[in-house]
Amino acid sequence: MPVYLFFLFPKTSFASQKGYDTLVGERGGLLSGGQRQRIAIARALLKNAPILILDEATSALDAVSERLVQGALNHLMKGRTTMVIAHRLSTVQNAHQIAVVTDGRIAELGTHLQLLAEKGKYDTLVGTQRLAFE
To answer: Which residues belong to any copy of the ABC transporter domain (predicted)?
Structure first.
């Protein structure tokens, strides 16, 4: 586990000098949103539960941190059931199954490639996010 936690908290991180003794303020008030998010992920992973639910787990991270954390999460999700709720497609594109939920119902279900081939809602979402980065 420590190897992957390094990606959540690199040496230049806020928690590198004092580790678990780092002061974070009441309810994490001294931390940024991204730092609180990384701590929440680390706590979930340290518990080592067989089921992991990640709800917008990387939404408060910058692009570089998201890539590092996503890489660590990809390794840590192996061997456990994981449900990922996300708007960022980079977070879900490698999932075994992707469910597109619209109005509280599953509108589409499949892998990334299957859903792209269907040219439905998922394909539209992917296109919209690609345009945002061009």
So the answer is: 20-59
Please give the single-letter amino acid code of residue 26: E
CA distance 67 to 90: 9
Are the C-beta atoms of residues 45 and 1 closer than 8 Å to each other?
yes
Query: Cβ of 15: how many Cβ atoms within 10 Å?
Result: 19
> What CA–CA distance (Å, rounded) separates 109 from 101?
9
C-alpha torsion angle, residues 67, 3, 46, 112 (rounded to 10): 30
Bridge partner list, 63: none
Q: CB neighbours (10 Å) of residue 40?
A: 15
Amino acid occupying residue 105:
R
pLDDT, tens digit, for every residue of 30-89? 777 777 777 777 777 778 788 888 888 777 777 777 777 777 777 777 888 888 888 878
* Reported pTM: 0.66
SS3 for 40-95, per residue? HHHHHHHHCCCEEEEECCCCCCCHHHHHHHHHHHHHHCCCCEEEEECCCHHHHCCC
